[in-house]
Structure to design on (231 residues):
């Protein structure tokens, strides 16, 4: 049995720029303190995104495109066995290009159709891969694990990051025998970097070999840059 492990995926919703806390002047009017606040949490993924590609070949462009479309349709039918309907599939790419022979002349054409399938039940991830392989999918792209409510998590972590920034600013103010004043400004460092289990693998396997996906936790993090007044 083949075991594809994913012990811990990093899902960075907001990443810190790593600024060190430092005191400074604020337009010559208010004294302030600059800090970076962070927050993180480990969560279990509840959504998988799998990219795959089907390739069609033909003597001309139309024949290649038709062959690729037929393979894409076969892949969609195969996914019905996992109760994955067509609305869970998204076309993410299409390319058509000539094939050259040894003499540098065009001998035919190839067409690639790339799709992304959303898998709500992570226990089906291995079965989805097996069905796509059996249906004739040519290439597996990225398998990403994420969470459906990442926007909610981002808001929660942003609030925790601001609180962390306030605590850091309080420590710095106290060290300088000052009182911490109001929050003057805050900005959220946002981004997106989904952890990937594997990428660009050929869909080749023996008939009696079942693919098993072992998912781990996702580390979600946020950071803010905050400026507090000193009193």
């Amino acid at each position: 049995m083949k075991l594809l492990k994913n012990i811990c995926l990093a899902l960075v919703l907001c990443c810190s720029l790593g600024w060190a806390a430092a005191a400074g002047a604020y337009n010559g009017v208010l004294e302030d303190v600059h800090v970076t606040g962070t927050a993180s949490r480990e969560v279990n993924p509840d959504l998988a995104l799998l990219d795959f590609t089907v390739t069609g070949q033909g003597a001309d462009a139309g024949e290649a495109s038709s062959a690729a479309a037929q393979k894409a349709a076969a892949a969609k039918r195969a996914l019905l066995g996992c109760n994955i309907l067509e609305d869970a599939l998204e076309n993410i790419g299409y390319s058509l290009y000539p094939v050259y022979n040894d003499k540098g002349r065009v001998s035919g054409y190839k067409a690639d159709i790339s799709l992304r399938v959303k898998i709500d039940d992570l226990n089906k991830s291995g079965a989805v891969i097996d069905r796509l392989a059996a249906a004739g999918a040519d290439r597996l792209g990225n398998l990403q694990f994420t969470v459906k409510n990442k926007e909610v998590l981002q808001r929660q972590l942003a609030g925790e990051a601001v609180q962390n920034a306030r605590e850091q600013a309080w420590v710095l103010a106290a060290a300088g025998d000052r009182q911490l004043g109001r929050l003057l400004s805050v900005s959220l460092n946002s981004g997106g970097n989904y952890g990937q289990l594997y990428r660009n693998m050929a869909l080749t396997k023996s008939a009696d070999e079942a693919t098993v996906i072992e998912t781990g936790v996702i580390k979600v993090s946020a950071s803010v840059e905050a400026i507090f007044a000193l009193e």
Residues 1-28, 192-196, 198-204 have pLDDT under 50 and may be disordered. Helices lie at 61-79, 125-135, 150-175.
